[in-house]
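This week, think about what follows.
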Amino acid sequence: MLLYSDLTEWYRLIDPPEDHATDNQKYLERFERATPGARTLPELGSGAGHNAVHLKSSLMCTLTDVSAPMLALSRELNPECEHIIGDMRTLQLGRTFDAVLVHDAVMYMTTRQDLLSAARTAYAHTRPGGTAIFEPDCVRETFKEATDLEGKDDGARSARFMMWTWDPDPADDTYVVDFAFLLRDGLDVRAAHDRHVEGLFSRETWLQTLGSVGYAVECIPTNPEDGSAPELFLCRRAEA
């Protein structure tokens, strides 16, 4: 995917770190309530480290991702954090942590076996009494096709993009996000198309999968006033 390889130099204009502040305050509050005094956390699929920017003052973060270019971006922002290349389906760090975070990178689990493998990885790295948070972009029940236009400027550099979310086959477990980018550096403008195939599972599949590895799972709407997407899965590992 171009966004995580050839286009990483544009990533902070496409997904600014400051846009993640509110979500990460929510994660800190939920971790503290579920596992008081939590101090250590790996993020599975940490990307450019835009969550860690807001978490690292409270948690010692270990940041893992399959993309070396994205981890390089993260090291620039979070030099004090540990960075490890690894796939959330197979990662083995050999130690456990107070809390585990799996944010929107989990959307690249496109089969139920992928999702189960990621859940097993998270559980293996959650200490007894610890907590994991999974927050997919959507579940099957809350998925909506959409077209979004976004962009940001930084001096002579600007990015504009359309994100088109659609489902070519509602009978399977995936949907598509097509990105159309216009990227300007001074007077030069380039265009790029990037397609992402992402997993789409029912709420019950999420609950069953996360529960099957040993977690006690609570599904929490993140907008409780109207019950709208996305939803957060708070997963507790029992004390030994």
Summary: The mean pLDDT is 95. Residues 21-34 form the longest helix (14 residues). Residues 139 and 204 are 9 Å apart (CA to CA). DSSP finds six helices and eleven strands in the chain.
